[in-house]
Amino acid sequence: MAKVRVAVIGCGSIAKNRHLIEYRANQQVDIVAVCDIVEERAKQTAELHEAKAYTDYKQLLNEEDIDAVSVCLPNYLHAPVSIAALEAGCHVLCEKPMATSKEEAEEMIQAAEKNNRKLMIGHNQRFVPSHQKAKQLIESGELGKIYSFRTTFGHGGPEGWSADGVDSWFFKKNEAFVGAMGDLGVHKADLMRYLLNEEFVEVAAFVETSAKEKATVDDNATLVMKSESGIIGTLAASWAYNAKEDNSTVIFAENAVVRLEDDPNYSMIVQYTNGEVVKYELGGIQSNEEGGQTTSHVIDHFIKSITANQQPLIDGYEGMKSLNVILAALSSVETKQIFQMEK
């Protein structure tokens, strides 16, 4: 089988430390071209991966014969660049959040369908072994009725990891559109939708910019969410967890409490109401602090969806539904009311 010819648009940290490394590790991929508006960054990345360097993504799409594109750009560029790549006949893996509005997300989905191409959004939390095991337990009925949850994603902020440090686009509202809530919170919104296999119908949120002096976006956010069947829980996203990253989820059910990525030794602990405790060593969730996320399984899943002609697990519709939770939270903040989501 011919290799999947790939281009990566945006050569910042997410491309450098995840997409390009994982593409390179995949035997079915040939990295053909890379693009970044910073010419030196594009050239260095191209040299490292034996690819051609571009500073204009439109020129890249016009000149190169490519099958698939990773869009690793500031949030406000996700939709226009993804749509351009889809229109050029490429399958697209877009970083999260997929867009800055529901309208943009719908346009991306329409472009994928019109051109018969795959659109996948990079929500890697679904591929974490403990999360997949928890989903199996929930679906089996072993936990009984699910009552509540709390889920958290926080670290010291993107300046320690982003290519541009404290000057990063992450902190600029006109480029990022949202802060910690879009960077981290959307991952957890997607995870809870995946685990519970339900949509959220009501969202209330509080956000604050208190930890990052120059930021024009939120750096701390807490959401209260209610699902279709009445499961209620909290989602916290923060760039102010300075001592240690927290990427944990706790699910409270009729027959057990399930703790995910909440213990330094066990990736999942199930505490049953009868007193039994089961501890799972499934391989911990990867973090940017500990050697990067080089086996997130996102790239492999994307490539397989192309080669096997399968629908990606997180397609455009799934990405949009998770984005909608964050958009609902923004509406709640603006109106100071509980936001009722569309069914």
From TrEMBL:
<feature type="domain" description="GFO/IDH/MocA-like oxidoreductase">
    <location>
        <begin position="131"/>
        <end position="257"/>
    </location>
</feature>
<protein>
    <submittedName>
        <fullName>Dehydrogenase</fullName>
    </submittedName>
</protein>
<dbReference type="InterPro" id="IPR055170">
    <property type="entry name" value="GFO_IDH_MocA-like_dom"/>
</dbReference>
<dbReference type="Pfam" id="PF22725">
    <property type="entry name" value="GFO_IDH_MocA_C3"/>
</dbReference>
<dbReference type="InterPro" id="IPR036291">
    <property type="entry name" value="NAD(P)-bd_dom_sf"/>
</dbReference>
<dbReference type="InterPro" id="IPR000683">
    <property type="entry name" value="Gfo/Idh/MocA-like_OxRdtase_N"/>
</dbReference>
<dbReference type="InterPro" id="IPR051450">
    <property type="entry name" value="Gfo/Idh/MocA_Oxidoreductases"/>
</dbReference>
<feature type="domain" description="Gfo/Idh/MocA-like oxidoreductase N-terminal">
    <location>
        <begin position="4"/>
        <end position="123"/>
    </location>
</feature>
<dbReference type="Pfam" id="PF01408">
    <property type="entry name" value="GFO_IDH_MocA"/>
</dbReference>
